[in-house]
Design brief:
With about 220 residues, this protein is of the alpha+beta class. It contains 5 helices and 10 strands; from the N terminus they run H-E-H-E-H-E-E-H-E-E-E-E-E-E-H.
């Protein structure tokens, strides 16, 4: 798959560099059973100006965080029970899609999704994500063209939210997948997950996850840094 243009990537990295890569969570400060509505989550999304002048929020979507949002792990036979448990997770969610740079086919596109569940459920969800990647770091996924291989590597991120993990995904197979890495950060802030996908820009993913964490603390939990 083609990499984002240098102009789009540099714009995203430049804007992300203005924010820290760490932010505290809310465990011990907030009600662990508190959940939020789609409208509440939407209000807690980052404002358009947070992304810089060369970025544009192209979509904001509300909807249930159901099984189709959890990734395709059907090819991970040793983790069948975990996959079934994962598909039982749901909660209100709000997602924004942001494009950096000019309107081109290879412009960098970033998504930030906020999901609300009781804190115990978000803890378990991240446990499952880590375990899936340990059991099946490589998964075959069927596409319309041909099966492709997903290669996952997980890293923990210190001092970001109550816990945070980085998923490094490389896809190979067919003519369009060259194994270039893409990055997704999952941050837990009490009972809210912030899932930031930034394509091939690790620094932007981490920085925007930190900014989203700060926003969740302030807008949803009313906790000042």
């Amino acid at each position: 798959m083609g990499a984002p243009s240098d102009e789009g990537r540099s714009a995203a990295s430049e804007d992300a560099s203005r924010t820290p890569s760490t932010a505290p969570g809310v465990d011990g400060e907030a009600d662990p059973d508190k959940v939020f509505t789609e409208a509440g989550l939407q209000a807690a999304l980052l404002p358009a100006e947070a992304f810089g002048e060369r970025a544009k929020v192209t979509a904001t979507d509300l909807g249930l965080f159901g099984p189709y949002r959890h990734g395709d792990w059907g090819g991970c036979e040793p983790a069948e029970e975990l996959v079934e448990e994962q598909n039982g997770f749901d909660g209100a969610s709000a997602t924004q899609t942001v494009r950096f740079g000019p309107v081109t086919e290879d412009a960098q596109v970033i998504t930030i999704q906020l999901v609300s569940m009781p804190a115990a459920r978000t803890v378990r969800y991240l446990e499952i994500q880590r375990r899936l990647r340990e059991i099946c770091p490589e998964v075959t996924v069927d596409t319309e063209a041909a099966p492709v291989q997903e290669h996952h590597e997980t890293q923990e991120i210190a001092a970001l939210g109550d816990e945070a993990m980085l998923d490094i995904l490389r896809v190979t197979g067919g003519d369009e997948y060259d194994g270039s890495p893409s990055y997704t950060v999952d941050v837990r802030v009490g009972g809210v997950l912030a899932i930031v996908s930034s394509g091939g820009d690790r620094g932007t993913a981490v920085s925007l996850a930190a900014r989203a964490t700060q926003r969740i603390r302030a807008e949803l939990y009313g906790t000042d840094d």
